Amino acid sequence: MSRKHSHPLFFLGLLTIALFILMLSACGGGTPAATGGKFRVMATTSIVGNVVSQVGGDTIALTILMPVGTDPHDFQPRPQDAAALADAQIIFSNGAGLEGFLQPLLESTGATGKLVEVSAGITLLPLPGSDQSTGDPHTWMDPNNVIIWTQNIAAALSAADPAHVADYQANAEAYATSLRDLDTWIRSEVVQILPQNRLLVADHAVLGYFAARYGFTQEGTITGSFSTEAAPSARELAALEDKIRQSGVRAVFVSEAVNQTLADQIAADTGIKSVWIYHATLTAPGGPAASYLEFMRYNVKAIVEALK
User: Fold this and answer.
1) How many CB atoms lie within 10 A of CB 38?
2) Distance in Å from the first CA to the final CA of the chain
3) What does the pLDDT profile of the chain (308 residues) look like in tens digits?
4) Contact between 103 and 111 (Cβ < 8 Å)
5) Cross-strand partners of 63
6) Which residues contact 51 (CB under 8 A, 6 or more apart)?
């Protein structure tokens, strides 16, 4: 008798898939045929949504919870969001503590069992100057982490919609190839920056995974926190400016979620550049960061140009 599938991990995988399908059914899910159309999927952020769309393709009907331009650190759900969560058959979030608002909202709508955290399985970096127990939630700043996202998304969609397993797996592998190509391109770009100039100051601690992957150091942040909601004191800003001068930092990187005036003040006081990057949201279609791949390329070009 063949022992091709006798490994215990194989049976564990089958059990996991079976339990996942039962869980979705218990929460009001079902197959696309049973619901009369495409599989209903929600993603919390535009970045998560873009990756989900790459894996799900035309088989899913995707809704994104947070509008483009939204900072997930301070997002306030609207009444219609609860109905959208309840209607979704599966919900993808970044996880790692990013969407602090989400768990109460899921509990209020009875949708807790539908949640899949795409960052599951990623070894989280510690947050500098924080006792945040979950670690750094900004996992998407390294495309190698997003490859893990695609694996988690494909596994969850395959379990919930077995009729399209081949599609989800093929889409995930094709997108993973694009992500590996992106990683190669980033490494080829950052070699333009001398090692002593690979120093990053941003509005908040968003660049940890990027720094760890590509040989940079996070020298400091404007907010002194992993969150954009923290407000720095005058003393903290003065200490940051002193560090910038002493370390030879060349630029401060500011994103869509911070007060541009504060970054401009620091840049003027220290004689460095204030440079725009994106951190937690894509742009609208036609914008410079309308997809995750474009988002990373835009940011890398901005960082390289400012520091080389």
Assistant:
1) 15
2) 63
3) 333 333 333 233 323 333 333 343 333 333 333 344 899 999 999 999 999 999 999 999 999 999 998 888 888 898 889 999 999 999 999 999 999 999 999 998 888 899 999 999 999 999 866 555 679 999 999 999 999 999 999 999 999 999 999 999 999 999 999 999 999 999 999 999 999 999 999 988 899 999 999 999 999 998 765 554 556 788 999 999 999 999 999 999 998 756 688 889 999 999 999 999 999 999 999 999 999 999 999 999 999 999 99
4) no
5) 42
6) 118, 146, 149, 150, 153, 175, 292
Q: How far apart are alpha carbons 3 and 25 in whole angstroms?
A: 32
- Are residues 142 and 131 in contact, defined by beta-carbon separation less than 8 angstroms? no
Domains of the chain: 8-184 (3.40.50.1980), 188-307 (3.40.50.1980)
Helices (H), the chain: 8-26, 46-56, 79-87, 102-109, 143-160, 165-190, 208-214, 234-247, 260-270, 292-307
* Residue carrying the six token digits 């500011």: 254
Cα gap 113→220, rounded to integer Å: 38
CA distances from 108 to 92, 140, 195 (A): 17, 28, 50
- Are 188 and 162 contacting, i.e. CB atoms less than 8 angstroms apart? no
For residue 165, count CB atoms less than 10 angstroms from its CB and return exposed for 0-12, middle for 13-18, buried for 19 or more.
middle
Tokens matching residue 63 = 């809704």
Tokens of 140: 């998407």
Buried-exposed string 50-82: b where 16+ CB fall within 10 A, e elsewhere: bbbbbbbbebbbbbbbbebebbbbebebeeebe
